[in-house]
Description:
The protein is mainly beta. It has four domains: 6-151, Arc Repressor Mutant, subunit A, CATH 1.10.10; 174-203; 212-472, TolB, C-terminal domain (Neuraminidase); 492-749, Neuraminidase. Strands 45-46-47-48-49-50-51 form a seven-stranded antiparallel sheet, with no helix packed on it. Strands 9, 30, 31, 32, 52 and 53 form a six-stranded antiparallel sheet that branches. Strands 4-3-2-1-8 form a five-stranded antiparallel sheet, covered by helices on one side. β47 (662-669) and β48 (675-690) form a beta hairpin. α1 crosses α3.
Amino acid sequence: MGSERQSIKYQFGVFEFSSNTGELRKNGVIVRLAPQPALVLKLLVAHNGGIVTREELQQEVWKGDTIVDFELGLNRCVARIRSVLSDDADTPRYVETIPRSGYRFIAPVKIVPVPQRQGIPDEAVRVATPSSGPNAPITPEPCSEGLPKAPESVAPPLVDAPREASSRSLGRKWRILLFYALPAAVLMIVALFWSRHFVRNRTVQLRSDYSVGPLFSEPGQAAGPSFSPDGSKVVFSWSGSRQDNFDLYIRSIGTQDTTRLTKAPETDYSPAWSPDGKSIAFCRGGPQAGSSIWVVSLSGGAERKLIDVPWTAVVGSRFLAWSPDSRRLIFAGSLNEDKTSGLLEMEVASGATRYLTRAQAGSVEMHPTYAPDGHAIAFVRDIARGISRILVLPMNPDGGAAGPPVPLSWPGFESSNVARPVWTSDSSHLLFASNRNSEQYLWIAKAEQGAAPQLLSTLGPGLMDAAISPTGDLAMVRERLDIDIFKLDIDRLRHGAFSAPVPVVNSSRLETYPNVSSDGSKLAFESNRSGFTEIWTSNVDGTNLAQITNMGHPITGSPAWSPDNRTIAFDSRAGGAPRIYVVPAAGGKVEALTAPNEMSVTPAWSPDGAWIYFTSDRTGRPEVWRIPSSGGPPQQVSTTGGFSPSTSAGKLILYSANRAWVTALKSLNVETHEEEVLATDAVRRSYYPAADGVYYIAARGGDHFLLKFIPSSGGAAITLYEFPRRTAEGMGMSRDGHSLFFGEAEQSNTDLQLVRDFWRK
């Protein structure tokens, strides 16, 4: 009996592509595609939004024995793929060219496993099926359409010779055999050596028997796990049984024993267990800017503050890492007297602190992790608000950097977010979280250039943070988040009556950043219901849903209607850098408005439609700029820092230019440049300037949020409503001013989960 062999069907738009047969169908009808372009297409769709480099294509498709010119052959294959998909290289919907790098498939791809029927003869299948299973490559053939035929390289025939010439003929046979066979043998040996000693060393031999179990599953938010040196316990931050404040707790592995470690009224976060097991360092802060680093001894005694730092409490982020000798703390951020972001090293005993790295203007250092053997620190550098890289900083045994940081450039992660790296217990590999495939997964890679990160898909999506114990166990944070768009009756709230949120747009995924068209009839919002986050529209009541963009990137959003309701501006990192784009409101050709070499996000139209305001850090910090909506050179508007602008009655409403989640909201007169601080407790990007004032969402502490209103006539902010659940960034209002649209979490919780014996040395 033959075993059932598994194939994969990729679905995108009106097309279906079989990984097993290389067969492409359009609306169910077979489209002719030669085997070699089919293999190129398979590699593109299998990466599902990731960049496939030209080097990868050459290695996978154009083997060492091919006689077809690689560059010309690849260009012909991509042209053929675009032809059958009716795609355009200048305005791609499916295959995007990444200059000097490779190609990326940008349309949403749905993957459907399809079991093949038993008994199909191998010779009837046009795909090689080695033991590795369903992802075997399609047998390559030259992409010869439009190419000249290459001459065949065949040895001349050997004919019978007279007996007296047999010795001479035999010598000739050996010479021919050596001439043709020896180079092939040498190539095979070199390829085998390369695969065994280079390619294999750049990948990880993943297990298939990982078992994920619960570690801590109480209601609320849990974050930042850190193992004790013996691997028997985990310290983490938890919002508590009443979900009113984050404190530190210790959980014993394999039991239900949980001990509360801290009880301060502030938020305690980012704990780090010292390698000697004697103490735990952590951060403490409130919703406003300003935190401090503390250490608590596990043998008793009071908590001790080490230093004040100028950042806001961010529970899900990692700021601290111990040196292996427990003498020094590494933290990511800046000092009060120096706002430069970098990695800093502190002697715990003396408090002496020095910079190890300094990020360039517009970049931020985050998530340090010290290798257990002490040879290096890995950390993340956010280079463009959502696009980040992992770097490795070599370290001296007694502290201090042993050289400059080295960025780990990994193919496929050029325009992705990578976060919270952690070393394996033998200091050889890095585990990290990334949204490369839209949802947040854990990946693992050897800590070196040219490594091939591998997706830990068996662990599932929604994984935000991880820790590996010295014994090889894995603790990880899984987030379950469902955000939908609701509306509130503002008239009732402003008259003191109660108003319950009414759902408008909902799904099991994320819908955020609602923006109402100028005529009040339509909503634009961002949603990942199709896989990647894209711009969608609907009627203002949530009906008539339509997907407007196909950028194929995890970070696309911030939609803004033009005053004439014909165009939507938005931002996306799809091209490798955050840019402002415009698209017809009914869908169609997407055009980039800002340059690819400068960060540009959060667009907002001027009331007359002549300008689009946006945020850029091209001066070294975020400022508000504007650009003609028809295209042209940008102009700087704010000079004291600004983020996420919106226009109202000749003024701009914007946030202070820091990265804090809770920050100051201010107004700026475009003509006089006069500024006024409106509020200091505003949740970033959650505000709307109405005709008679400004509505905004304020953070009250923990996961509690208030809707406030600042009258234009003056006076203190008025609290209108307390949200029962966590809110999301973004806010819109109906044209008549009666309804306020916002994002709210239908489900928002995190669990700590455990994988025993994850890493085997």
